[in-house]
């Protein structure tokens, strides 16, 4: 009885839309004139799998995931371990790392566009001071994706740091002390004590970051617009283009289903691998 309101909300706002997306993925759905919609079965999926643009968007998504998730996870773990050590101003540093995460992506993206500006941006000014060649950053085919990755790491790493710090506080201090008494070096203590006990937290962070990277859209929309020359057109951005620029609603729905299946499959594999290692 107590779960009825929550279950109703879940059905209306999650299950219902998901079923509707699956339904319209089987149609050549005209967003502007739904009376012109035609049942095509798996035709949208077949068209999608034959599209070079779709495979390019998947490759760009993989590039973004591989470039952002490992650095975001293990960089955050390193920062969390440093912030767990007692030093003056520790609270301020914790705040500095977390503040970007709670600021709007759109607002901070605009600031970073100024930093990335090839004429008067801070990053190119620093390169010039170091007598290095300047970079086109978001306007360059080569550096557009790395630029988005840099911004994403800056914006999201604070969340990972907080989660890892919470995980580190659950590790009994006497376990580490026993390892040090036995002569373990800090590196040995990390691999033998900290890392195994932190495995559930690490799995959570990896899964959340992977899902977030697969679904990332706002930073691409505000920083690069999917360009230049589709250099940052990920699967999520490609879905947006098909749905709200070209109004290929059925095609976009099929893409949404495929993105969901990829996300679910990767999450399942990550959880199974982690569980197998700790059985």
Automatic annotation (TrEMBL):
Transmembrane segments: 7-29, 58-83, 95-115, 148-169, 190-214, 245-269
GO cellular component, one term: plasma membrane
Topology versus the membrane: Multi-pass membrane protein
Main location: membrane
Keyword Lipid biosynthesis: no
Domain ABC transmembrane type-1: 58-270
Entry keywords, A to Z: Cell membrane, Membrane, Transmembrane, Transmembrane helix, Transport
GO biological process, one term: transmembrane transport
InterPro entries in the record: ABC_transporter_permease, MetI-like, MetI-like_sf
Protein's cellular compartments: Cell membrane
Family label: Belongs to the binding-protein-dependent transport system permease family.
Record's protein name: Lactose transport system permease protein LacF
Organism of this sequence: Sulfoacidibacillus ferrooxidans
């Amino acid at each position: 009885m107590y779960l009825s309101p929550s279950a109703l909300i879940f059905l209306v706002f999650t299950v219902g839309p998901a079923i509707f997306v699956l339904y319209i993925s089987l149609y050549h759905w005209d967003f502007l004139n739904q009376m012109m919609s035609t049942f095509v079965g798996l035709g949208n999926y077949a068209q999608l799998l034959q599209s070079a643009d779709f495979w390019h968007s998947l490759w760009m998504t993989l590039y973004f995931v591989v470039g952002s998730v490992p650095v975001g996870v293990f960089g955050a773990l390193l920062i969390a371990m440093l912030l767990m050590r007692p030093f003056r101003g520790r609270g301020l540093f914790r705040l500095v790392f977390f503040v970007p995460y709670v600021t709007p992506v759109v607002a901070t993206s605009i600031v970073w566009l100024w930093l990335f500006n090839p004429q008067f941006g801070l990053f190119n000014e620093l390169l010039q001071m170091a007598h290095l060649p300047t970079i086109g950053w978001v306007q360059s085919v080569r550096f557009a994706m790395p630029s988005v990755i840099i911004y994403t790491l800056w914006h999201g790493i604070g969340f990972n740091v907080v989660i890892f710090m919470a995980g580190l506080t659950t590790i009994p201090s006497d376990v580490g002390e026993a390892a040090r008494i036995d002569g373990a070096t800090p590196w040995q203590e990390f691999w033998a004590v900290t890392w195994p006990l932190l495995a559930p937290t690490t799995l959570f962070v990896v899964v959340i970051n992977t899902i977030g990277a697969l679904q990332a859209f706002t930073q691409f929309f505000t920083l690069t617009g999917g360009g230049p020359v589709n250099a940052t057109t990920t699967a999520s951005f490609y879905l947006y283009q098909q749905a709200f620029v070209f109004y290929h609603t059925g095609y976009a729905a099929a893409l949404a289903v495929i993105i969901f299946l990829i996300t679910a499959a990767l999450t399942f594999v990550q959880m199974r691998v982690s569980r197998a290692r700790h059985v």
